[in-house]
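Exercise 7.
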Amino acid sequence: MRGLTNIEGIYFLGIGGIGMSALARYFLSQGFIICGYDRTESPLTDTLAEEGCTITYEDSIDSLPVLFSEPTENDRVLIIYTPAIPKDNVLLNYFRNNGYSIYKRAEILGIISRDTDAVAVAGTHGKTTVSTMTAHILSVSPIGCSAFLGGISKNYDTNLLLSESRYTVMEADEFDRSFLHLSPLISVVTAIDPDHLDIYGTAENMIGAYSEFCQLVRPGGMLILNEKIASSLSLPSDATIYTYGTGEGASFRATAIRKEEGSYTFDIITPAGTVKDLRLRLPGMVNILNSTAAAAAAWCAGVTADDIREALWSYEGVRRRFDIRYTGREIIYVDDYAHHPQEINALVSAVRDFWPGKHVTGIFQPHLYTRTRDFAAGFAEALDKLDEILLLTLYPARENPIPGVSSGMIAGLMKNRNVRVVTKEELLVALRDVKQGLLLTIGAGDIDRFIEPITEMLKEKNA
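Solution. The predicted structure, written as tokens, is:
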């Protein structure tokens, strides 16, 4: 990135976030001193520390390394923060009050997007999978790419890819309107279902922001839209517009879909012909559509049919996105980041399709008071499709409690009475008698801390 000639160090507020950690790795690879703060220790922060970052979990000026603690030296450093950092954060306010150069994570990604040919993937669902698939297809091909991913790629065991390619794949986050800082050559929008209404207020305002994102495609660039949402968006006149889906009118159409043992096989009709006999090891129609979107983006960058075919077959997925953690004689355990009703619907549909007839037990942790308040009925309807459900107490993240909003609110709206609200302390005990079939952990909060304990418990139980 240009313009950092005199900078020695970069401090990240919220360094343990999936997007922030990718940026930290990017600048670490360029030789900068990287330090940061996060509220809690996690596997991500542990890995960053092992790679050479200095991390504190104390929101105190006393915790700052010398390079970042002297305002007289503030021209030697940059501060990057995530909007998830509270406004009353001591460190953030110290930097603001003492003249430090402070940037949002999205602003830095915006600069990188202008310095490269960015492929930006947006959408309320699917953007992590589509961006990771796109990055993998480009990486398998001679074209290559760098990538800032919103999850840990299982192919590369990282959320950051670096190469000399002119292409950079980015997950374009709609939270806090962050994606409006980008300047993509190729953009993808997967879905515009209402979300983050604490930011946008109404679904119409959120769709308006997606229309603004579409307008950011560079003149002569390419915009790829899910066929179901194209008519809802205001589209640029100086870019090539493509759609993807299964409908007859889609520019990139998935067809001849058939399920085989452990995989799906399908074709994609493109504007230049048909890519035949694609194979994918991820379950669910949603991943056929995700593959079609990723193949479309890669096609726009010049990737050949043979490279697309090879890449989709070798694609292993993303941690916490339909992540099969354990397969035993009596039970299969899948972990997924789904935190919106439509995402849970897609997950359950994929599970039922791939493993028909199995009893499905789900553990769901609601994420955010506002999202739970806004979509409680939708969550209840989606979770009713499971055979048995354990509702973990709500994960608040950055929010303060809202009276009356809790996991019990969802339980009270469910028709399926085979539901229990449990605390984190009670969860493993409650799982001792889990029924044979499928077990799902679902949610975007700290439910991920249970993945390894649950996996080990199942291994011991089924040894």
